[in-house]
Amino acid sequence: MYVGVGSGNPVKRRAVESVLSASDAFDDTTVEAVPVASGVSEQPTGHAETVRGAETRAANVLEAGDFDLAIGIEGGVARFEGCDGLFLVMWAAVDDGQQVGHGSGPSLRLPDDIAERVDAGAELGPVMDDALGESDVARRQGAAGALTAGGLDRQSALAAAVSGALGPFVTDHY
């Protein structure tokens, strides 16, 4: 099977590889990173825009090559009714050209000072780099790792979203 991941970010590719390698349904699978446009803003806001980014990435992967499955992963920020604060959210879409599966990862409340900067128009990745005094946090532990003291890294968080999105492709429950 030939699977394309709609991103050049190695963390997203590793997240997909970890999910696929855990399933017998994906023996003899090749995963390729395919940097494609998301069609959404650099900092998606709200679940709808974040889902649209994941779907667009997956669709663009299918257009880019002869893949059996295309996987788009998008991180964004969103609010939840009944809960204060701005949250990091992540969504995945899996597309085979016939159907699309969706899954979300964990949601993590952003600290107020970081949320204020994102609300003012900054992108979360550079804000996290600045807040942590590091560079390329998004290509390593991610905000998820930083906000949980390593209890949950970005790869594992994204893998949860991918696992959920693969449901219609690996079970008969849909």
CATH architecture: Alpha-Beta Complex
CATH topology value: Maf protein
Indicate the CATH class: Alpha Beta
Taken together, the total number of domains comes to: 1
* Main sheet: strands, sense, barrel: 6 strands, mixed
Strand percentage: 15-25%
Distance between the termini: 21 Å
- Give the total of beta strands: 6
The helix/strand order is: EHEHEEEEHHHH
Layout of strands and helices, then pairs:
Elements: E1 2-5, H1 10-21, E2 30-33, H2 47-64, E3 69-80, E4 83-95, E5 100-104, E6 108-109, H3 112-119, H4 124-132, H5 142-147, H6 154-170
Parallel strand pairs: 1-2, 1-3
Antiparallel strand pairs: 3-4, 4-5, 4-6
Helix pairs in contact: 1-6, 3-4
Write a brief structural summary.
This protein has 174 residues and is an alpha/beta fold. It is built from 6 helices and 6 strands. The protein has a single domain (2-107, 152-170), classed as Maf protein.
